[in-house]
Amino acid sequence: MYRIQAATYRDSDVTDAKFILTGIPLPMPFLNALKTILNSLLTQSLELSALQIIPHIPLYYNITYETFDTTCLQPKNHFLFSPQCMNLTSNQPSRVLKHSLQMKIRSGGHDYEGISYWSEVPFFILDMFNLRSIKVNIEDETAWVQAGATVGEMLYKIAEKSNTHGFPVGVCPTMGVGGHLSGGGYGYLMRKYGLSVNNIVDAQLIDVNGRVLNRETIGKDFFWAITGGGASSFGVVLAYKIKLVRVPAKVTVFDVHRTLEQNATEIVYRYQHVAHKLPKEIFIRLTMMVMNITEGNKMTINASFMSLFLGDSETLVSLMNKRFPELGLKKKDCKEMSFVQSYIKWTNYALGTNCDIGAPKVLLNRAYNSTHLTRWHSSKSRYRVT
Fold first, then answer.
1. Closest Cα partner for 346 from 284, 264, 276?
2. Which residue has the higher pLDDT, 58 or 339?
3. In sequence order, which residues have a C-beta less than 8 Å from that of residue 83 and are 6 or more positions away?
4. N or C: which end of the chain has fewer CB within 10 A?
5. Do β-strands 123-127 and 80-83 pair in parallel, antiparallel, or remain unpaired?
6. What confidence category does residue 76 fall into, taking pLDDT thresholds of 50, 70 and 90?
7. What pLDDT is stored for residue 115 in this prediction?
8. CB–CB of 241/144 below 8 Å?
9. Is 80 exceeded by the pLDDT of residue 160?
10. Which residues, other chains included, contact 209 with Cβ-Cβ below 8 Å and sequence gap of 6+?
11. Distance CA 304, CA 253 (A)
């Protein structure tokens, strides 16, 4: 494994900017040729004398070969390019195409088919890992979030500023913002506030010609495409400007399970006729799976109803008993907490004592939980919403 690092960048606006390239073990002739290629990939202000080739196994080896669902049979990237400032990104798309290498853009790598980190043709990865700045402005209720940040990091930064603001995203904190938001972004606030893309107000991206554009300069059709159409097809998204949404200081969650023996069939049937008619402050996710309930290996179906309510528990129980009494929700089934704590609850992390106040630091953990990120995970949930 080799790491190629440029330690000096002459741009007066950027000091000590760096980038890292890593890939599979390559012969020295190829690496020497790579220096020449880099000269055309990067701006002419880069000092080639600053390039160093060091036999190494850096963090990016773990990201490529251990973090993601890769096998020895899948083609591996020739190298990984991870810019640490926007200037080092702007000239890549058009120049890389001249060298017959396909460019894969990776924000968090959560796509279930592995599209961002493997290909059947020679390719390299443009990893947005280092572009992860998050600037929250509570006064105008917006935030600029770079594409390499994770959903968890974004919610943590919002919670640092306010316990009455949030953002509608999916319930996996290690998802990359760039991929999640550009693909739509659905989650447990969508009945109230829609998808993530419904709350994006601006973006910064680089097109194939190396131009840095925003919502005004790309036009409404292009902006529509990168907010739901999968941005990597159209350019390299550097950052999104999002509109924060308001949430109560305390929300309520519950996770109620019912088996066939507990009348799950009728409850699920009623759920399909009731869920979309409930107030938009209530979101209920239904999941079902086969489970063993006796020592004699008797199987049954377990239906799990997990909910977020933007309000207090008393209001929720009263409402559910009037509109969905078949579920049999009790006050003891409910727990009140802050919005960011409810997100932790939905991600199946335990709420420890260090998570009871403020922004839980577990959201800053970029490591994947392999028990949650599986190929069947994307299809196990069935939402009924309006």
1. 284
2. 339
3. 19, 89, 126, 128, 130, 131
4. C
5. parallel
6. low
7. 75
8. yes
9. yes
10. 93, 94
11. 13
Which pTM value belongs to this model?
Answer: 0.76
As a three-state string, the secondary structure of the chain is CEEEEECCECCCCCCCCCEEEEECCCCHHHHHHHHHHHHHHCCCCECHHHEEEEECCCHHHHHHHHHCCCCCCCCCCCCEEEECCHHHCCCHHHHHHHHCCEEEEECCCCCCCCCCCCCCCCEEEEECCCCCCEEEECCCCEEEEECCCEHHHHHHHHHHHCCCEECCCCCCCCCEHHHHHHCCCCCCCHHHHCCHHHHEEEEEEECCCCCEECHHHHCHHHHHHCCCCCHHHCCEEEEEEEECEECCCCEEEEEEEEEHHHCHHHHHHHHHHHHHHCCCCEEEEEEEEEEECCCCCCEEEEEEEEEEECCCHHHHHHHHHHHCHHHCCCHHHEEEECHHHHHHHHCCCCCCHHHCCCCCHHHHCCCCCCCCCCCCHHHCCECCCC
Percent of the chain whose predicted confidence (pLDDT) is above 70: 65
Query: How sure is the predictor about 44, in pLDDT bands with cuts at 50, 70 and 90?
Result: very low
Domains of the chain: 2-127 (3.30.43.10), 134-246 (3.30.465.10), 251-337 (3.40.462.20)
pLDDT in tens, 7-21: 333 333 333 333 344
Q: In the predicted model, what is the mean pLDDT of the chain?
A: 75
Contact by Cβ (8 Å): 225, 237:
no
Contact 212/186 with Cβ under 8 angstroms?
A: no
Q: What is the pLDDT of residues 181-208, one digit of tens each?
A: 988 998 999 999 999 999 999 999 988 7
